[in-house]
Each structure stands twice: as structure tokens, then as C-alpha cells.
Input
Amino acid sequence: MGILSLLIFIPLLGAVMALAVRRAEAAKWVALITSIVTFAISLGVYAQFNSAGSGYQLTEQMPWVVLPGLSFTYFVGIDGMSMLLILLTTFLTIVTIFGTWNSIQKSVPGFMALLLVLETGMLGVFCSLDLFLFYIFWEVILIPMYFIIGVWGGKRRIYSAIKFFIYTMAGSLIMLVAIIWLGIQAGHITGHFTTDLTKLMVISRQLPIDVQHLLFFGFALSFAIKVPIFPLHTWLPDAHTEAPTAGSVILAGVLLKMGTYGLIRFCLGMFPQAAFDYSGLFSVLGVIGIIYGALVSMVQTDVKRLIAYSSVAHMGFIVLGIFSMTREGLQGAVIQMINHGLSTGMLFMMFGMMYDRRHTREISEYGGLAKIVPLFAVFFGIAVFSSVGLPGLNGFIGEYLTMMGAYYSPVLNTWSYAIWSATGVILAAVYLLWMYQRFVFGMPKGAKPAGAHGHDSHGHDAHVTHEDHGHATPDLNWRELVAVVPMVIFMIWIGIQPMNFMKTSEKTMNQMSDDLLKLKQGASVTAVNTSHSKLFVQNMPNGVKK
Amino acid sequence: MTVFSISARDIYGIMPLLILAGTGLVVLMWDAFEKIPSRIPLFLTVLGAIAAGVTGYVNLDNTGRIFNGMILNNSFANYYSILFSLGVIIAVLLSERYLRDEGVLVGEFAGLILFSACGMIMLASGNDLIVTFLGLETMSIAFYVLAGLFRTRRESNEAAVKYFLLGAFSTGFFLYGIALLYGTFASTNLDAITKALDNPMTSHAILTSPMFWMGAAMLLVGFAFKIAAFPFHQWAPDVYDGAPTVVAGFFSTAGKAGAFAALVLVFNIAMGPLALDAAALQKMQILLGVLALASMFYGNITALAQVNIKRMLAYSSIAHAGYMLLGVAAMNKEGASAVTIYLTVYTLMQMGAFGVVALLEKESGRGLELSDYAGLGRRRPWLAFVMSIMMLSLTGIPPFGGFFAKYYVFAAAIRSGLTVYAILGMIATVISVYFYLRVMVVMYFREPEEGGELVVSSSGAVAVQGDTISAWAALAIVSIGIFILGILPMILTDIAKTFYLP
Output
């Protein structure tokens, strides 16, 4: 068993153990230790990963199901993009478990087990190189998420859980047909049914162009639902809002990335021509998502719903970056995936901490938190600024690169996408800062006398600093600080030294971009492109080759 | 003129059938002579079924025909013998408490289950339409009696009569179909049918003759009744609802498997060479494909509206018949394997679901509403867990067996060019997600209603009254089976590969 298989299945083992210990405290510790071990293994994977190498690394392949004409294999491996997403997944899982330590009260072992099964599914998705294996992990994720929303969620949890499940399932079943169909088409060309991604990346390009288009949409629909791309986003506000904090963090932090990951890995990887042909459509939808998400965010009165719609906007940047097909755009998309995972994950988590204290999601119920809980206000502020895209923090890098990619893209061939998406950045500042202002500044509101909070989950270990003010909303305790400080460190690190992270996926993304842009003959804007990318990213090799 | 004689090879070939029939006779007699009811007949039945399964396994690598070409003795037939034996074991293990509570004689029940399994084996090994017909009747007559097993319960009687009348009706169609095919091929032997269709000299005349198509269609109608495919399904919900729960589970799994085995033998394997003629293939695929799609959509949409869990499972079984028919419609070898794998997994998951329902059922058919399951996840965590596995597997979500089963069926359909049908089938699956999920919603997301049927057993422990070790053994077999088949489907696919050896 190789290190990737170990990485994927260790959380599953932890899930079984969390169920076996049965006691709530013990289950939490099992989950935490498992997630830390998984993170350590992912660092081990990172150590073995060679970011200068091309193709897929650390691959493991063994026959799995052998039936004449319908065989597939257990095939895992990673490239630069999956490496970053694996690190994000293992990191966020620890932070989530630790940061929401006391917010789950009922059936804790079950919750922790589901969270770990979810981790297995997510890691599996990012490691699979066989379409079939990918599909299985993709679907496995539905079950734990469904239960996490449905059992531990808010008031409308049942509606949201079912909506989430059916929406995703509808998309993925179409993808299953596409996978089988593609495998059979490949069989017609090579004589062997195959769902091996590395082989299909070559074979699929020999298919007739209309078949490529159909297959492209078969895959893209499923990913577009997951991202979500406007107009398929309606499940997201419900699911994010009703999920418990840990569910929201993982959903926003990692699950949405599976959609954009799939778009890059499968839609662009296997059907470059089709992706090229429809890049305009997807870029337009991306830009609509950016502006629409921002506008809808602005009028939300529910903090979680506001953050959820801001996800629609942020994911729009990633889609735009992907379909610009330039090096900058794709690299920006990858780094923006990480950024969004960190910043939106942190927003959800910090709001969850406040929700555990106040039990309301209405912005109007809050106010003056800066006076009551200054530490919270500072860290929440950093998350907000990161999400806005303030230079010096991570969000700026991703948004800047995707817009630059869209601006110079020889594929889109117009700067209007970049201009329109830039308005999204301004709108983001409007809705997030306005929310921050109403949430954190102004007169303290809704704080109840100390006695009213005796039942609160955090009661025993809370670090109550403001007893003397008569408010029982305690500031962040040491546990919560330990959870948020690493996220802030990464936000600043990415903001100041993005190349430390981007170099991991650089080779992969550059190859993909060059591959895609070969389709476009005579790209005249590449000269300008080069100088600008040099300004920003020193290590990026010169320009886009013709 | 060959002299008809029975050799030792013939006897060995039908050993599973003989063992089951023998066990059936023994348990029936046991009841007649036993003063105090005991569990011995059940024990004997399980032993007999295990023995039948083992002999089926021993015979698995056999090839050829026995009884003068009337009976198949190959991996296909013997594989189904194992499957039916497994169905018998699960049904009998699940029914122990049920029979005791309802005061039904064990021998009677077990005997009828065993005789119906004999009929199924004949269906799966019939190489002649006459044998197929005999098998169908043996199975059905035992089923009619089983449906009315609770003599004092009105629903049970109604179910039996309804089943009998519609079943007799379908038998008429079936026989008429055989007659017309005999008129076409001058033989009822499946090998003769294959040979005639394989021969370019004769096939064209046959495939353009209305007699052949009428015969095939009539035969299909007869089968459609037995597998409860739309629009020949009307008996199914009422019969499943009225019949004892375990029996309904057995009807909808092993019974369906028997009819499907014969359907695959006749349409996929015997009429396989039909695929050489593009026009005929298209005609047959439309015939079967439309039947499949109609069953999927009708079953899944109607199941959405059900509040009674047995009726919901009945409608879902109509939809599953549709998925399997899509495998038949593929008219290729993958299709036959796919249907067989689907039937195996389906037998496990549907039996498991009916088993949980049976364990939760109270006297005289109460406790069957969906709302009775509220909060089951808290009160009976293991039972709710098993039910969740069954529901997820029936939905077709990995890593459970139901997913691979569905994959093979749809892959076979896409391979033979039925991509549009497969996409529509996937849409039907999405519809089904809702009502399978609803069971889990009720079990896990809702609190139990005060004064509800099941609140009495509030201890929350694993086994409350009514659960027996045997029932839990059965549920363990199906749960583990579904999980293993989901992760290691090659256990089945390796066997399925050998189906086409002569």
C-alpha cells in the first residue's frame, strides 16, 4: 500500500474507531488525532512530491474490477493541483474538528465518524486517476454530508439536505453516463474499455468533435452544480446556511473545490477543444456568478446566507480563471481555490463560534462586538479582508491573477470579462465591509445577562473576559485561537509569498495552459502577457508559447 | 429418434432442485406428525437450502445440457440455484418470529417456500419453453398459497385471490406465446430457436414473420406479469401489501429473479443471434426498452406518493424491474451478466429492507406507515443502520452493491447503443432518490411521535422484543453481502464471465 492509499484510508479507519469508542469526548480525540495523523501523512506526500516533475506522481495502480469490456482499476496519483488541494483538505479537517470542538452536542461519535468519512471521500476525489474511482469517491461524499446537514443542521435542515442530495445526484448520474459512454468510445478506438484518465486524455481528443462536446457537457454539468456556477447555485445558500458550522466549513472549504478541480482535471484535461469552444459561455456564467452573488449577498440579513452567496461570487472568479485558459488564469484559479477554502472556511468557522454564543444568524441581532469581544473582532476582520481581496492577504493574489488571466486571454479575446469581474471585487468590499460594520461596530446589542448563558456549550472552558461589562459573550478562548491562528498565518503567508505555494502547481498548470492555447493559433497578445506576468510572478517561465 | 433415458449425469445436474424438493417434502411431513410445534423444520429448511447451494456451487463449472437437451446444466443455471437457495435461507431466517406470532405452521410455510424455489430453479435452467412453463407454474402456485398464508386476515386472502386471478391470466398469455413460437420454429427448444435465428437462410423469414413477433410479445407479456413491469404490475402493490411481509420480500426478490432468469435465457441468450439483424434488433430493443422506461418512471413516481412502507417498496420493485429490463433490452452478453448481478444484489437489498419492515411490524399489520419509523435512528440504531444501507444501496450510491449493479446494467445498455434510454433511466433514478432518502429522513432527522406505534420499545437497546438471533443473522448476511459486493464486485463478475460457455 502506497502513501496515497494510506492517506485516503486512514480517516476511514479513524471513523470506525470514533464509532467504536462511543463516548463523546473520546470520539472527539480520536477524530482529532486521526486528522492530525492524516495531515502528517499529507506533509509526507508533499515531501515526496516533486513539483518540477511532470505528469502524475506517486501513482498506484492495481486491477479492481475485471469484466470483459467493462474493467476498471484502482488508480491514484497526484499532480501539483491535487497536491495543494490535499493539503487544504487535511489542514481544514483538523481546524474544523478543533474549532468546533463543543458546538456539536448530540451523537458526537456519529458526527466525528461522518466528518472523517467525508475526509476520505474528499482525499479520494483529489487522488483518483481512474474516472470510475473518482465517481465513487464523488458519490460517497454525499452520504456523510447529507447526514451532517440533516441531523445536526438548523431549522430547515431536512429541506436543505434533500435539496443538496438530489441536486448533486442529478448531476453526477449524468456524469456516470458520460463516463461509461467515454469508456466505450475509447474501447472503439483502442480495443479496450478504459476509464484510466491518463489514457483517456489522449484518446478523447481523437473522438469526433460533436461527441467531445456532448461528453464535455456530461461532465461539466455535474461539476457546474458542485461549484456552483450560476444558475445551478440554488442548493448552495440552503445547504451552507442550514449545515452545522463544521459542515459549512468543509462544504465551502473543500467540497466546492471538487467542482472546479473536476472542471480543470476532466473537462479541460480530456476535452480541450470543447472547453475551448465553450469558454465564452462559461466565462459569461462565471462573471454573472461574480456579480449576481455579490448583489444578492448585499441584501442578506442572515450572516451565513451572506457568506454563502459570497461563495457564489468567489467561485465565479475561479471559473473565469479556468476558462481564460492562460497560465495566470489557471494558476490564479488554483490559488483562489486554496484562498477561498481558507477565507470562507474561516468566516464560517468564526461565525459559528459567535453562533454558539448568541444562537442567532441575523445581522441585526449583533453589533458592537468590537467592544465586547475584541479578539474575535480582529480575527473576523482578517477573514473579511482576506475575502474582500485586500492586497497583502491571500484573496488579492487569486483574484488579481484570475482577472489578469481573463484580461490577456487569447481565448476570450476581450478585456470586458476582466472589467466586469472587477466590479465584483468592489461589490465584495461593499457587502463584506458593510456586514462587518453592522456585525462588529456600533452599539452592543443582544448581549444577555450572564446567567442566561449558563447552558452554553462553551461555558466551562470559556475565557470570559468581559464579565465586568455585564455581557456574557466571552471572547475567543485558547482552543478557538489555536484553530484560527494557523489560518491567519496561511492567509498572510500566501498574501506575501504566494510563490511558496504556487510553485507546487506551477508546472502542472503551465503545461495545461500551453496545451490549451495550442488550439488558438496566432495569439497576438502573448507578448503583453509575458511582461505582466513577470511583474507579478517572477518564477513564471516566459509567456505563452505559440 | 433418440431413446429417452436418465443418466447419472442428469441426476447430478439437477441435484439442487432435488435437494430442495426433498427438504420440502420432509418439512411438510414433519408438521403433520409433530405434536408440539418446534423450530426443527426451519432448521431443516436452512440445512437443505445450504446443501442445495453447495451442490449448485459444485456444479458451477459444468457445461452442457441434460435431460435430452431440456435442462441447462451450466454456470448460469447453477449460479441461479445458489441465488435461490440464498433467498430461501434469508426468508426462512427472517420469518421465525413472524410465524410464531401469527400462529402459522412452520412446515407449511417452509415447504411452500422450498417448492417455489424448485420452480425458480426450473425457470433458470429450462432449455425448453415447456420446462420454463412448468417452472413458472410450480413457482406461481406455491406463491398463490403463500400470499394467503394468513388465513384469518382479510388482506391476505384478497392478495391471494388477486394474485391467483391475474397470475392465471398471464399464464394464458405465456402459453399462447409458446404456441406461436412453436408455430414459428417448429420446436420449443431454446437451442433450436438459437440455431434457426443464427442461420442466415432461415432467420430473415422468421424475423419478418408476424407470428414470431406476436409470440415473442405474448411471451414478454407473460414474463412482464411475473416481474411486475408496467403496465402489467397492478397486482404487485396489493399483493405485497396484503401478503405476509417476509413472503412479500421473497416474492419481490427470488420470485422476480426466477422470472428474470427465464426472461434472460429466452430473450438475451436464445434469441441472441437476433442482434445480427439490425432492424429486428431495433424492434426488440424498442419493445423491451419502452417497457423498461415505463416501469422505471411509473414505479419511481408512484413510490413518491406512498406513505405505507410496504407499498413504497412494492412500487420501487416495479422500478427495479425496469432497470433490469434495460439490461435485457441491451440484447448482448453484458446485458445478461448485468441482469444476473443486479438480481443478486437486488435480492440481498430488497430482502434486507423487507426484513427490517418485518421486524418492526406489529400484530395484524400495524407499524407499517412511514411515520412509524420516526426517530428509529435513536431507538433502534442498528436496525436503522441496516435500513439505511438498504435504502442507499437501492438508490444506487457507492460503495454499496446497488451501485455496481446499476453500473453494469447501464453500461450494457450504453454499449448496445441505448444511450438515450440510459440517460432517461438515470433521470428516473434521480426521482427515486427522494423516496429512499425520505425513509432516512424519517428515521434520523425526525423525533418519534408521542403515542406512535413503536414508542413502546423505547429502551434503545439493540434487540428488543421480537428480534431473534436468526433474524439478525439474516440481516447481517444481507448487509455484509451488500457491502462486500460494493467493494469487491469481481466476486460476482468472475462468475458472470463464464455464463456464455456452452
